[in-house]
Amino acid sequence: MATVDDVRALGQGLERSYPVRVRGRLKFRVGQLVYVAFSLDEQVMGFAYPRDERAALVATDPRTFELPSESDLRFHWVHARLAALDPDEARELVVDAWRMVVPKKLSRAYDLTHPRGPNGPPA
User: Taking the model in full, what pTM does it have?
Assistant: First the structure.
């Protein structure tokens, strides 16, 4: 089971990423772009995800993933229940969301320092 602490540690270590509290909710931003946000009870993690791929993600495991509210469908966003994610899966989703909001050079630099992916040790 993934926890907010798993994501917090990763989010604070990603370049240009920083945590903020907005109306009691923990969010991670790069600049003004939010790429991960938690529900008030910290049971659900919203994260940036390609709009054209999110229906397929939700279809793979509807008990874990769900579409955002109708008003948020215009954004590149999906929700996941943290209790249904393992920590490695949560880390991968967070890094992929971060990649959507940073320049490609930062994403490539991350790949060079983490050749085994977000779950492997740095090089």
Answer: 0.89
